[in-house]
Amino acid sequence: MNIILYSATAALLLLSFVKDREKTRKALLKAWKAFENILPQFLVVILLVSLLLSLLDHRMILRIIGSESGWLGVLLAAIVGAVTLIPGFVAFPTAALLVNGGAGYMQIGAFISTLMMVGIVTLPVEMQYFGKKLALYRNALAFVFSFLVAFVIGQVMEVVI
């Protein structure tokens, strides 16, 4: 599948280059600058997760956020996701590393959903724009909803695996 996607991307880039060289060059430069801005955040998170995975053995990961950790592991993962500020393009590869390291699907579902929907770090800014009551209400509902997401992911993965 990756070969198909990379081939299609290369073909479309070549088509764009043939159609308008200058626009394609500008687009590639803009993409490179965006990549340069993203790279430091991406590398730091990947390094931290790699360090964490190297320090914690497989059994420790399983105990904390493995499928055997149950709802306590889901709660811990949800709390970590709620207080962490990681962009989505970094969060999903991080989740894959954690799953490969032994994390449970429900736990990672809770982590990713709170990471994307709950913003403890960004709560002051949200309160400023939406008001304290609405910001707290939205974040609380999103936190609770993440447990539903974790449950559904757990059920789906049980059927798939």
Q: Top keywords for this entry?
A:
161 residues; mainly alpha; 8 helices; 0% strand; globular
Per-chain topology:
Layout: H1 2-19, H2 21-55, H3 58-65, H4 70-83, H5 88-100, H6 105-117, H7 123-130, H8 132-160
Helix pairs in contact: 1-2, 2-5, 4-6, 4-8, 5-6, 6-8, 7-8
Concise description?
The protein has helices spanning 2-19, 21-55, 58-65, 70-83, 88-100, 105-117, 123-130, 132-160.
Written overview of the protein:
- The protein is mainly alpha-helical and 161 residues long.
- The protein has helices at residues 2-19, 21-55, 58-65, 70-83, 88-100, 105-117, 123-130, 132-160.
- Helix 1 packs antiparallel against helix 2 (21-55) and helix 5 (88-100) packs antiparallel against helix 6 (105-117).
